[in-house]
Amino acid sequence: MILYLISSIAMHNFEINIYSLIMLIVTFICGSIGGVVGINIKSYKK
Predict the structure, then answer these.
(1) What is d(CA 40, CA 35) in angstroms, rounded to the nearest whole number?
(2) DSSP states of 6-44
(3) Looking at residue 29, what is its pLDDT?
(4) What is the Cα 31 distance to its own chain's centre?
(5) What pLDDT does residue 33 have?
(6) pLDDT of res. 19
(7) Alpha-carbon distance 36 to 30, whole Å?
(8) In Å, how far from its chain's centre is CA 39?
(9) Average pLDDT for runs of 10 along the chain of length 46
């Protein structure tokens, strides 16, 4: 996600369109799910 933003800004064609918004939302949801699963897996290993 960060690489996409950096490359868009570097190529001077940075614009927030529906594709960018969908990618931001999906990335946030996947990160949230991964964080919850990661914390739960750590607690089970004790």
Answers:
(1) 9
(2) HHHHHTT-----HHHHHHHHHHHHHHHHHHHHHHHHHHH
(3) 93
(4) 6
(5) 94
(6) 78
(7) 10
(8) 18
(9) 67 69 86 90 71
DSSP state of 45: T
Amino acid of residue 30 = C
Which tokens is 6 given?
């950096």
List the structure tokens of 1.
Answer: 């996600």
The length of the chain, given as a count of residues? 46
The answer to whether the beta carbons of residues 25 and 3 sit under 8 Å apart is no
Phi, psi of 7 (to 5 degrees): -70, -35
DSSP assigned state of 2: H
Would you say 8 and 14 are in contact if contact means Cβ atoms under 8 Å apart? yes
